[in-house]
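We now fix the convention by which a protein and its fold are recorded. Think of the row as the fold of the chain written in a discrete alphabet. Here is one such record, which you should read through line by line.
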Amino acid sequence: MKILKIQLENFESHENTVIEFNPNFNCIVGPTNAGKTAIFNAILFALFNEWDPGFIRKSTDLCKVIVETDSFTVERIRGESVNSVIVRKDGQEYKFDNFGKSYPNEIKNLLNISDLDDYLAFIGFQDNNSFLIHEPSTVRSSYIGKITGLNLLNETIKNVSLEIKKVNEEIEQTEREKRDIGQNLKKLRVLDKLETLVDKLEKLEKKIVDLQEQNKTFSFYKEAVRNLDNRIAKVQDILDKLGSVDFDSYYQTCENFLNLLNVYGDVQRVDVSIERNQALLKNTISEIDDKITSLITLLKEKGICPLCGSHLDSSSIDYIFQDLI
């Protein structure tokens, strides 16, 4: 999503301001209290419902912010008797009135924007320190786990471990019941009760087998999750090592290698051309030899020089062509 245009009406120091943004880079400069931060606050107000009563310009009773993006347009109005949002998307208009401090899920789904906390890595407030640099290690770990998905992995491991523990407890309980039933069978001699207990024992044994199979399944998933955790750690180690790689030298080496490949290709094309010309020359020489042989044979048959008409014998003809054959 890219913000293309923003309009502020009676918002802080802005009475009616329209700003069109460059799609690549924007820089807002101005003296203190010129309204730079107000532009930032207006975007947070329209997209995340970040509100402060001081946003309404003095001597007015309501403010309005319109943010136009490449996906939608949102119009946010707030005053003493009005609290509304109008979203225009895909040729449709949706209006919402009288909601709380957070946007309803309907608005979040239309804007395709989650809570502001998920964007703190890309948003810096005035006079704030660098993002996460001065936060406790627990805060940094929690945020990194959230954006990388490690928190989901840890939660999965925790849930699998709890399920395994639960299955093991059920197995132990079933084993105890089995032992108790076995002891009761020894004491009971009444046939109908004995048959009932035997049937129950068989069901418990089947349940034990099923629980053992579940335990194997959970153990398999736990091991798979652990292996995935190890692979993530290896990937993180590779990423840490890549941070120290001299990519400029690497790119230069790759560029030199590509240049050598081009030169090698030119050399191969020259070699092919030489081979082709050698074959052509060989064929031409062979044709010349055939024509000379035919000429010698013809002269020997005629015995007369075609230029001067003088008589030629075989030895004279061989002498004339001795350097050509």
